[in-house]
Specification:
The chain is an alpha/beta fold. It has one domain: Flavodoxin domain (Rossmann fold, 3-Layer(aba) Sandwich). The chain is 42% helix and 19% strand. The chain has eight helices and seven strands; from the N terminus they run βαβααβααβββααβα. The strands form two sheets. It has a five-stranded parallel sheet with strand order 2-1-3-6-7, with helices on both faces. Strands 4-5 form a two-stranded antiparallel sheet. α1 links the parallel β1 and β2. α1 runs parallel beside α8. The radius of gyration is 17 Å and the shape is globular. The N and C termini lie close together (10 Å). The model has no long low-confidence stretch (mean pLDDT 95).
């Protein structure tokens, strides 16, 4: 399987648990015989979109065009990010707005119809957070994650989407961190 792994942490310094999770997934995917191409959102240079005209008709920066080609190449997307204020960090949202422009996600056919070139791709979203994952899922109803699934991924044709929520990361013991890394590496090996 061809996999695009999108590391959505906005800190380009690295060293976060999300970086270790991305490394574990990549290691597992490559060991499982899958091809994997990473996209480090924090290392990309792109402006935020500020108008509908820019979103619909503007030319994406080269870094975004490369990311679009990488996503188009893949069968499966993995998006890893920390939960900030109940949702994804603003830089990741800005990246997704740049990438999923109408010209990329909806193409007009010669007969006047349209097709969604991303239809049929699957996704795994891995979210780290300070609060317990059960509280986010049941009390807060995972609203940020559901928005990503419904309003972005599903809208452009990417489904099924599966999620892994890792809560309480500040208090995870080294043993628990190691177990999570192994679980994510196993997901990578089976391109899950």
């Amino acid at each position: 399987m061809k996999i695009t792994l999108i590391q959505g942490h906005p800190d380009s310094e690295g060293g976060h648990f999300g970086n270790a999770l991305a490394d574990a997934y990549a290691r597992g995917a490559r060991a499982g015989g899958h091809e994997l191409r990473p996209v480090e959102v924090a290392g990309l240079g792109f402006p935020l979109l500020r108008s509908q005209r820019e979103f619909e008709d503007g030319t994406p920066p080269e870094s975004i065009e490369v990311a679009q080609r990488t996503i188009a190449w893949s069968d499966h997307l993995v998006i890893i990010y920390p939960l900030w204020l109940g949702s994804m960090p603003a830089l990741l949202k800005g990246f997704l707005e740049q990438v999923f422009r109408p010209v990329f996600v909806m193409q007009t056919e010669p007969d006047g119809g349209s097709k969604r070139p991303l239809k049929g791709k699957s996704a795994r979203v891995i979210v780290t957070m300070g609060m317990p994952a059960l509280a986010y899922r049941w009390f807060f109803r995972a609203h940020g994650l559901k928005s990503l699934e419904r309003n972005i991924l599903s809208f452009v044709g990417i489904r099924p989407m599966r999620a892994t929520l890792i809560g309480g990361i500040e208090s995870l013991s080294p043993v628990r961190r190691s177990k999570w890394l192994q679980r994510i590496e196993n997901l990578g090996a089976r391109a899950g």
